[in-house]
Amino acid sequence: MALFSRSIPSGGYFVCAMPSDKVYVLVFESPPENCLSPSFIEIFRSCLQTIEESYPPGVLVTASRIPHLYCGDLPLKSNEREERQAWQLLKEVLMYPMPTIAFITGRAVGIGFLLALCHDFRIQGRPDSSLCICQEPSGVDLAPRLNLIKAILPCSTVGSSRLAYGKPLYAREATKRGLVDKIGHVNEIFKFIKDQELLEVTNAPAYRESKIRSNRKAICALDSIEEENYSTGRYGHDRPDAGSTKRESSRPREPKI
């Protein structure tokens, strides 16, 4: 059952459906590459807010409608403000008060790869789906991205050098190295939710707080990226986000951990 849809001003849309009770599937399509443009991020965040505020707690699944692609990187020639908005989206996903699952049916590249990692669980829908830290390693500061990966998955056996060269990790290797939980088709999502008892977990009164505690290293890594960029002047001195959505203004910002 479709719950709502939102158009992306730069092209494309988000649709939220509930195929099973309290399982929210947020599907997006922004051709050609699902790049994390400012309008894509804005609508993504507004959808997260609507699900949280308008529907009972459940499980959130995100997926792409573009074949062989989950989510791309920042647009080419993106500016500092657009980069900051992307980091803020990642932090919001890390702190989202429901269990989250990224269903990766194709490539997840750059910040799109990090977006998938910021979900609680990751299921790759195809053996040939892949994870890649960037399109062009020579044109990107990889240190913040690598630091965030280490903070999210400290036990992963994937080496920084492998990622730094921009080599893709395909589904079986990604699962072996701890970046992905399972490989399977869409029905695997519902089996996974049942096996992990995720619908029961989300009803715990202290779920949000426990999730923030468990993700504290990753949240701190994102805070450090933001602080470093402010201190070096990359974001200027206007700390309030000019691109903030209603979600930010409607409640106090979470304290740093």
Written account of the structure:
This protein is of the alpha/beta class and 257 residues long. It has eleven helices and eleven strands. A seven-stranded mixed beta sheet has the order 1-2-3-4-6-8-11, with helices on both faces. A four-stranded mixed beta sheet has the order 5-7-9-10. A hairpin with a 5-residue loop joins strand 1 and strand 2. Helix 1 (38-54) packs parallel to helix 2 (80-94). The chain is globular, with a radius of gyration of 17 Å. The relative contact order is 0.13. Mean pLDDT is 87; it is low at 240-257. One of its GO terms (molecular function) is delta(3)-delta(2)-enoyl-CoA isomerase activity. This is Enoyl-CoA hydratase/isomerase family protein. Residues 231-257 are annotated as: Disordered.
